[in-house]
Specification:
This protein is α+β, with helices and mostly antiparallel strands. The protein is 31% helix and 27% strand. The strands form 2 sheets. A 3-stranded antiparallel beta sheet has the order 2-1-5. The chain has a two-stranded antiparallel ribbon with strand order 3-4. A hairpin with a 4-residue loop joins β3 and β4 (76-80).
Length: 98
């Protein structure tokens, strides 16, 4: 059995930008229209799908952008560049999966 370690970042649903974009997404979903450019960029999707509301709260961190693998002679882990985390992130979670 193998084990892997993962990183997730989270934006709280009380974030001002999130709340603004959420209203636009819901209105576009109800109207059956695509998202305006700013909202599409925020959610990373041009279609007004409600599942994006939950997906946006969990931010995918990318190796080489947000973090690097840290290694020395006896250790291995992650090194996060805090300045490069997306705006609004208040939590970072590390977890192991078997």
């Amino acid at each position: 059995m193998g084990m892997s370690t993962h990183i997730q970042a989270f934006i709280p649903d009380t974030d001002e930008t999130y709340q603004k974009q959420k209203k636009v997404l819901i209105a576009c979903n109800e109207a059956g229209v695509n998202l305006p450019e700013e909202t599409a960029n925020y959610f990373g999707e041009k279609c007004a799908e409600l599942y994006l509301l939950d997906e946006k709260l969990t931010v995918r961190l990318e190796k080489g952008v947000h973090y690097e693998i840290y290694r020395d002679e006896a250790r291995e882990g992650f090194e996060i560049d805090i300045k490069k985390l997306p705006a609004g992130v208040t939590k970072v979670r590390f977890y192991n999966s078997f």
